[in-house]
Amino acid sequence: MVKIGFSKDFSTIKKLFPEKEKEQDLYIAAENTDNSKILGAVRFSYEKERVDIFEMIMVYQEQDSMAIFDGIIRTLLFKLADEECTTVVVHNAQGELKKYFEDHAFETESENLIHCSFPGEFFKPCSGCSGQ
What pTM does this model have? Predict the structure, then answer.
């Protein structure tokens, strides 16, 4: 089973972010509860209406790794939408992770990916819920 949550104990993800200055940052991670292994983690910050995603590390690279990554991002953005954040800026996205955000209508601006109204993109009702 996969558990996604905000890391309160940095020691569980320290090996992914070994730099001392990152110990005080905010993180959300996915963990395999069967073996307590971290599958992926995201380092972020937020202030006022803006979320900045600085690093995304997916340790788990199996067929369903992007579904787990999607769960991490949606959990993070759902919580921050509750905090009235509407803009998200993704720094240094590469490869498949960059494509993920581009597929969600993020635009490139100054080498970052930006979405100014992410709740509407990530939390729109499915076609069955919207009566379509």
Answer: 0.89
